[in-house]
Amino acid sequence: MLRRKIQLLEKLKLSVVAQHKLTLLALEATGHSQSERLGIPMLIPASHAIKADGVFELDFIIDGINSSKKRQLRWEAKNIYKLSELPKNIKAIKVNAAKNADIVIIDKNYNYD
Asked: pLDDT (tens digit, 0 to 9) for every residue of the chain, 113 residues total?
């Protein structure tokens, strides 16, 4: 398997679901690659996943096979996190692609309890 970042991140969306004292953060990323092989899109922690400034960093990657067929492909990945299992100092989530990145701010004024 070959692991590589997608080329361009197009959309990043964070949703909050709070039910029965459990708060979930749903992160959705969409992007594309011009010359790509088939694979599985994933959001994985970057090598320096949580910085001192409270930014949780993820890489938008494709875990794919090595084949000679290449084409333009669109990718979607979704991760769900329990807010209680993330560090207390988290302020934002940043997703990195090969050519760009985007960030979503976690609203501290929202009542997550």
From this structure: 678 899 999 999 999 888 888 889 999 999 998 867 778 999 999 987 787 889 999 999 998 776 667 778 899 999 999 988 888 888 999 999 999 999 999 876 655 44
**Quick one: CA dihedral 73, 57, 43, 28, positive or negative?**
negative
**How open is the CA angle 13-17-18, to the nearest 5 degrees?**
150
Using alpha carbons only, give the angle 93, 51, 15 rounded to the nearest 5 degrees.
Answer: 15
DSSP strand pairing (101-105 vs 55-64): unpaired
Choose among 57, 63, 59: nearest CA to 37: 63
Radius of gyration, CA atoms only, the chain: 15
Distance CA 38, CA 92 (A): 30
- Tell me the three state secondary structure of residue 106: coil
The model's pTM: 0.86
- The number of beta carbons lying within 10 Å of the beta carbon of residue 7 is 20
